[in-house]
């Protein structure tokens, strides 16, 4: 039974009413990230009576979070965000059911977690997780409400809802290729005004409520950007095609084999970096090849079997590689890291590709 | 119009004569070399474009970078 008094003010709204309230009560929404954006999203969705809320976050509350993550108090520092958030929300609205998932979203758990919910809200703070969520939502045809911030500016968009012509867009339509690490500073480095996350998160919550109840026009296929310093606001149409020059997952099987850290130019979590002491041991494993990506004429020459393919030719010659285990090496470890990334993109996930940390400079005879 | 880090590089909204978005970006990259290192989308009159687009006078071009914060 719905508590009519609790929801009285929105029940009175033209176009919302009991029907809208019942839609909210039976809705299933997964909020990924319980930080700056996640707090207002959670607060307003719980208060409005969204019946089933999932909270994914494996992080603990830090003192520097409290300036903008307004669900938490000073006494909560050190506690799990998803746990504390759920207990606050339960006391705010005992009518709704809340599931706490204190895990990091990854390629292993995402399909199962998403399949339980009809609407996904991206409140994360890093590109690898954002691209993972976007790919999964596109492939699973889940509505995704995206929000992101930078200093005094924020972006909101709604993905994977077909328009009248059946065209739908995802984050890959907007930014097909992840930026390089350090290209876009995060809140830790660039800072953020506390009210910004609340404003952008509140717009995300607005979109969720509108989508569930069917009121108004959503931000589907559009990117809203707001600058708080001058209230410059722009609404952009997102193109229907994905124009990407790099490979990205086109099936869920593909997605599960993708290393999103690597995809976003970051160091992989899998052990794809080889330390000098284990190079010889690794090189002797069956079906293994060492590839020297230095240019011809660089010294010292290698005293063990290897294939020499300069980095500049690596992409075109990648298909010549016969072995499944590939170790890329160079002088300092820089080019071999890029080479490893190139080969990952070129050859796909069937290959185990690693590179020598610190390069030949680090090898002791 | 520019957003995010792009605004920090361009400093303000600019009025530029250019016949197409490719020419416009060529001019901007020459004047602001740091721009060429950043991923961005170009929108003409609020539509994100995927290829070179002819510009008319008074067209508004917006440069949009990705944001990651949350």
From TrEMBL, chain A:
EC number: 2.7.7.80
GO cellular component, one term: cytosol
Keywords, ordered alphabetically: ATP-binding, Nucleotide-binding, Transferase
Recorded catalytic activity of this chain's protein: [molybdopterin-synthase sulfur-carrier protein]-C-terminal Gly-Gly + ATP + H(+) = [molybdopterin-synthase sulfur-carrier protein]-C-terminal Gly-Gly-AMP + diphosphate
Any one GO molecular-function label of the UniProt entry: ubiquitin-like modifier activating enzyme activity
Species of provenance: Sphingobacterium alkalisoli
Record-linked InterPro entries: Rhodanese-like_dom, Rhodanese-like_dom_sf, ThiF/MoeB/HesA, ThiF_NAD_FAD-bd, Ubiquitin-activating_enz
Family matches, as SUPFAM superfamilies: Activating enzymes of the ubiquitin-like proteins
Annotated ranges, domain Rhodanese: 284-365
Designated name of the protein: Molybdopterin-synthase adenylyltransferase
Assembly with partners or alone: Homodimer. Forms a stable heterotetrameric complex of 2 MoeB and 2 MoaD during adenylation of MoaD.
Keyword Ribonucleoprotein: no
Its biological purpose: Catalyzes the adenylation by ATP of the carboxyl group of the C-terminal glycine of sulfur carrier protein MoaD.
Family listed: Belongs to the HesA/MoeB/ThiF family.
UniProt entry tagged with the keyword Thylakoid: no
Top-level EC class as recorded in UniProt: transferase
């Amino acid at each position: 039974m719905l508590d009519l008094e609790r929801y009285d003010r929105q029940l009175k709204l033209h176009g919302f009413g009991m029907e809208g309230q019942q839609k909210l009560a039976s809705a299933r929404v997964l909020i990924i990230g319980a930080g700056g954006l996640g707090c207002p999203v959670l607060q307003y969705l719980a208060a409005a009576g969204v019946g089933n809320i999932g909270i994914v976050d494996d992080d603990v509350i830090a003192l520097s979070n409290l300036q903008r993550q307004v669900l938490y108090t000073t006494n909560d520092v050190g506690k799990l965000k998803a746990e504390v958030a759920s207990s606050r929300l339960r006391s705010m609205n005992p009518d709704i059911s809340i599931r706490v998932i204190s895990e990091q979203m990854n390629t292993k758990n995402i399909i199962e977690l998403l399949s339980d919910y009809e609407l996904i809200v991206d409140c994360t703070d890093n590109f690898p997780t954002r691209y993972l969520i976007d790919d999964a939502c596109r492939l699973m045809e889940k509505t995704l409400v995206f929000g992101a911030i930078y200093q005094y500016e924020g972006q909101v968009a709604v993905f994977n809802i077909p328009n009248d012509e059946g065209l739908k867009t995802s984050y890959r339509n907007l930014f097909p290729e992840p930026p390089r690490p350090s290209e876009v500073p995060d809140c830790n480095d660039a800072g953020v005004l506390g009210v910004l996350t609340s404003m952008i998160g509140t717009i995300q919550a607005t979109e969720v409520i509108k989508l569930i109840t069917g009121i108004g026009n959503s931000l589907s296929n559009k990117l809203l950007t707001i600058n708080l310093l001058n209230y410059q606001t722009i609404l952009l149409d997102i193109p229907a095609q994905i124009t990407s020059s790099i490979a990205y997952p086109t099936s869920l099987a593909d997605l599960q084999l993708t290393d999103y850290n690597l995809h976003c130019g970051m160091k992989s979590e899998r052990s794809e970096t080889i330390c000098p002491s284990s190079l010889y041991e690794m090189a002797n494993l069956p079906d293994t090849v060492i590839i020297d990506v230095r240019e011809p004429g660089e010294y010292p020459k290698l005293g063990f079997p290897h294939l020499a393919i300069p980095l500049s030719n690596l992409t075109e010659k990648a298909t010549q590689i016969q072995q499944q285990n590939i170790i890329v090496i160079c002088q300092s470890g820089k080019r071999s890291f890029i080479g490893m990334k190139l080969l990952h993109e070129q050859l796909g996930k069937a290959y185990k590709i690693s590179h020598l940390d610190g390069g030949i400079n680090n090898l002791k005879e | 119009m520019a957003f995010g880090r792009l605004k920090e590089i361009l400093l303000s909204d600019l009025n530029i004569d250019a016949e197409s978005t490719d020419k416009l970006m060529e001019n901007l990259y020459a004047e602001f070399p740091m721009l060429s290192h950043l991923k961005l989308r170009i929108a003409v009159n609020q539509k994100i474009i995927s290829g070179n687009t002819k510009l008319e006078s008074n067209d508004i071009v917006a440069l949009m970078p990705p944001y990651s914060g949350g």
